[in-house]
Design goal:
CATH topology of the largest domain: 434 Repressor (Amino-terminal Domain)
Number of helices: 6
Strand content: under 5%
Organism: Thauera mechernichensis
Protein name: Phage protein
Structural class: mainly alpha
CATH architecture of the largest domain: Orthogonal Bundle
């Protein structure tokens, strides 16, 4: 019997996230992070002064518009946003850009909102289906034992 190539099913493993390359110098992310901060600020729906005020309130420490300007400038490599303020920036800008970027670099995925709920529902449905199979097997075994 001749085997034919399956042209309809894609490479299932191509969808699996892969961690970033781990060679010397390959993980210098300052410019990328500055670009992501800039994207988050651009999509915030308000100006940088408002974002800085929100961040200051949330973090309990001063964050200025000038700090945001420096953190988002790709040319200011020596002045990157501190890691502990990444989630604060995301909350202030209503985004998950940095979280998703970090997950991508580490070879994983982040599910947020509806996608997270869908994944949990799928997981619980698999557990239910497996429990149903076990119950049927036990009932079958019990039926066989009742005849003895």
């Amino acid at each position: 019997m001749a085997r034919h190539a399956d042209i309809h099913t894609g490479d299932l493993f191509a969808l699996l996230p892969q961690p970033a390359e781990q060679t010397p110098g390959s993980q210098c992310y300052g410019v990328e992070v500055a670009h992501l901060v800039s994207q988050a600020l651009a999509g915030a729906g308000c100006d940088r002064t408002d974002v800085a005020a929100r961040m200051s309130r949330l973090a309990g420490r001063d964050v200025s518009k000038y700090m945001l300007d420096a953190w988002s400038a790709e040319s200011r490599e020596a002045y990157n946003m501190p890691f502990y303020l990444a989630p604060v920036l995301e909350v202030a800008c209503h985004t998950h850009l940095l979280t998703q970027w970090l997950a991508d670099r580490r070879g994983c995925r982040v599910l947020v909102g509806k996608a997270a709920l869908d994944a949990e529902i799928g997981k619980l449905e698999r557990v239910r289906d497996e429990a149903g199979k076990k119950i049927r097997a036990l009932k079958s075994a019990l039926g066989e034992m009742g005849d003895a």
